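Collaborator request log, item 7. Partner lab (contact: R.S.) asked for a structural prediction of Calcium/sodium antiporter to inform their binding assays.
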Amino acid sequence: ISPIAVHSRILRKELPLLTVVTILAAWLLHDGIVTSSDAFVMLAVFAALMGWTIKEGIQEKKDALGEEMEQELDLHAMPVSKAMFWLVAGLVFLVVSSRILVWGAVEIAHGFGVSDLVIGLTVVAVGTSLPELASSLIAIRRGEHDIAFGNVIGSNLFNTLAVVGLAGAIHPMSVGPEVFNRDILLMSALTLSLFVFGYGFRGPGRINRVEGMLLLLCYAGYNAYLVSTVFIN
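Returned to partner:
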């Protein structure tokens, strides 16, 4: 839709951290088991990153991301009571819709003989990411590139550390070898590509249309491969 320019100094610091976190997650999952200790390491790293991000956000008062957020808040100003209502309503709707999505996806998987892993990597992943996609597209059309890019980085950090960490803390998880050999290695490669494209070693970071199309084609090819494995098997 539009080239993404990354101006925020905070985002340019978090982008290398996302790469390191992805490598850390790959290392913790290489044995095919998410133990309780692995989970607590992820949660501790997530808590430390959130604390660091808040600290950096307070210190970087003139950062581009903060300015974009202030503009966004000014455009949608509302009373605190109304904001609290929509927050609670949104959380309730999110919980209910998420349970319906997972239930429907599992039923589809069992009905067609598709593994839960493939359904999670395709249907559930797309369904849960649609709100992020919509908000990022709106931000891009408004020229708020740092918000859109920050949404991607923050979501990846949260899913990698908090979601996997919390699930593993509740109950240890085991994953098949294909998760590491195929899915995690590809995720690591694409995260590294995002770092190379977006960091901007000689100036402001920028992801142009060619690089964006390349990432999109990689994702489409990955999903096509997953679908092909269903029919082959």
